[in-house]
What does this fold into?
Amino acid sequence: MRTKSDRLAAIRKIVRAQRLSTQGELRRALRADGVQVDQSTLSRDLVELEIRKSRGRYVLPGPPAESNGHAQFEAAVQSYTTCGPHLIVLRTSLGAAQPLAVRIDQAGEASIVATLAGDDTIFLATRNRRTQVVALRRLEQWFGDKHE
It folds into this structure.
């Protein structure tokens, strides 16, 4: 029998490698990998791993620049603040806003509907106040507590 950490690692590996849109598909992929899991346990594992659906498929959490550029963008972000219930204004160093906005869009964060970037400012649109709070938490995870 595999341990929980083995099961979680298998889930991460499969989600990273395959485009899966249902828990049934994920359970079948896990079973093919030798991991038996019931639906309720899989649901809890997905919550624990912060795996969510984006554009109809499961995606892993992570900063917009998961691999090598995260530190560069973390340093480039100067601050972020809310502006009403649907907008977050993110200030960056000069020239960093557009490439960072692309990375944020690529991250597929469900709470962020769209980005609009200038040279040193990014507007992040959210659907409502609740998703704005989720987006703020994600920005804090990615870039540290720079909320004004």
Residues 65-69 have pLDDT under 50 and may be disordered. DSSP finds six helices and six strands in the chain. The first helix runs from residue 4 to 17. The helical segments are 4-17, 23-32, 39-48, 70-76, 97-107, 129-143.
